[in-house]
User: Which sequence fits this backbone?
């Protein structure tokens, strides 16, 4: 999963803050060893000087040894060192081998080892007139100093961590505000991708973002202008196509139609006249059959070019006639037409657009899909919007297939009336062509529906 730019910057800032805090803690830990050593050596030196001074002032009597013990007892409250006095030489040896008092350690043992604070033992002989009265054992105890360092490390980690979190939160907010224009520009680009060329991004942020916004808006304006020009071109093309279809239909109906009718009539007369010549009868029948086939072909071409029912009877009968024509030519395909009873549209442009949408969709189904089942549905929803749907169970529209003039014409026809067309995979497994067209001029909807199935 790809991380967003904001998340990457937040992680980078967080890593830098963490490294800075870790470096500060490491610096404290590294310096703790020398700190503990210096403190211990200083206290040991002071204590040794004090004991040496006490030995110089010691009275020469039998109470000397007792007073030496009192001197050691008075030094038990010193920080960082422990002082004992013993007349037994083995006690000094034992003191050198003694381990630190773990009960005085507030820090974990691993931290004690990390600091490298090792206890030091100094044995100071108590001599009087060449006679050894015993030994003062000065044992350095770094526990207090290590505990202080541990407490400082915890305090630094806690306060530093809170400060780092606050800094990270503040930096994240600043980064979010800084990158907010990019999110707006991304949404604008998404709308441009979806075909909404009227979108304009708000210019805000740093000069770099202002320049990017200006270029994005210039691109949107150029695409909007090209889209309008393209729509005008396609609309003129569709208008010219409809006019050409109407003209061809009139020519076929007014010019070719009468000739075919005359040919059929004359062929019928010829067939009746040659009944006395059996050899000529099959030829006359063949001429009649060929003329009938030409007339049927002419009617089928007329229906496709400009269906008479569309202007004479309305869009409902025209759609039923269109579906019936495909049922005749494609009897192996099941065609289901779901159309409101007495369905009609008052506006001639809406009638033509609905008819052409269904006609083009069915043409694509039979040319490309290889479908066995096709469903056509025309309905009105509560928002007074006309919905046209053609769905099949065929191969569907290939993802890498370029959109041809037919599909582009369907989109432009619907867009010319303020509608839209969506093409996607349908519930039957094939392609679904669906259009939504505002139709305030259409007749009011009926509740009763008529479903025709082949």
Assistant:
């Amino acid at each position: 999963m790809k991380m967003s730019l904001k998340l990457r910057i937040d992680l980078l800032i967080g890593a830098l803050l963490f490294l800075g805090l870790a470096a500060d803690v490491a610096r404290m830990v590294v310096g703790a060893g020398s700190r503990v050593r210096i403190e211990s050596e200083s206290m040991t030196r002071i204590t040794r000087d004090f004991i040496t001074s006490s030995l110089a002032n010691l009275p020469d009597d039998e109470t000397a040894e007792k007073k030496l013990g009192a001197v050691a007892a008075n030094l038990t409250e010193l920080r960082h060192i422990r002082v004992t006095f013993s007349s037994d030489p083995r006690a000094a040896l034992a003191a050198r081998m003694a381990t630190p008092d773990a009960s005085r350690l507030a820090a974990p043992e691993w931290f004690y080892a990390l600091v490298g604070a090792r206890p030091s033992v100094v044995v100071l002989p108590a001599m009087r007139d060449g006679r050894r009265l015993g030994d003062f054992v000065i044992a350095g105890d770094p526990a207090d100093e290590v505990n202080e360092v541990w407490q400082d490390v915890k305090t630094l980690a806690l306060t530093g961590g809170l400060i780092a979190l606050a800094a990270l939160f503040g930096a994240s907010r600043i980064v979010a505000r800084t990158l907010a224009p990019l999110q707006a520009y991304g949404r604008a680009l998404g709308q441009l991708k979806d075909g909404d060329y009227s979108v304009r991004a708000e210019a805000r942020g740093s000069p770099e973002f202002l320049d990017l916004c200006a270029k994005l808006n210039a691109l949107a304006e150029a695409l909007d202008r090209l889209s309008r020009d393209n729509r005008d071109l396609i609309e003129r093309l569709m208008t010219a196509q409809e006019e050409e279809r109407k003209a061809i239909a009139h020519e076929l109906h007014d010019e070719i139609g009468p000739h075919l009718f005359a040919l059929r009539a004359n062929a019928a007369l010829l067939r009746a006249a040659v009944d006395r010549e059996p050899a000529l009868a099959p030829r006359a029948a063949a001429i009649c059959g060929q003329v009938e086939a030409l007339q049927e072909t002419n009617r089928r071409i007329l229906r496709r070019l400009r269906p008479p029912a569309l202007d004479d009877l309305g869009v409902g009968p025209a759609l039923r006639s269109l579906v019936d024509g495909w049922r005749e030519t494609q009897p192996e395909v099941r065609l289901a037409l779901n159309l409101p009873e007495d369905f009609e549209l008052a506006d001639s442009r809406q009638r033509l657009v609905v008819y052409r949408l269904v006609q083009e969709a069915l043409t694509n189904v039979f040319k490309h899909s290889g479908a066995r089942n096709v469903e056509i549905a025309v309905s009105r929803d509560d928002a007074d919007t006309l919905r046209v749907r053609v769905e099949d169970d065929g191969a569907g529209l290939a993802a890498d297939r370029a959109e041809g003039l037919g599909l582009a014409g369907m989109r432009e026809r619907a867009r010319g009336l303020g509608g839209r067309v969506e093409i996607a995979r349908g519930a039957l497994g094939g392609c679904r062509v669906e259009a939504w067209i505002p139709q305030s001029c259409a007749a009011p909807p009926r509740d009763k529906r008529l479903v025709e199935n082949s």
Observations:
- The mean pLDDT is 77.
- The chain has eleven helices and nine strands.
- The first strand starts at residue 81 and ends at 86.
- The first helix runs from residue 5 to 56.
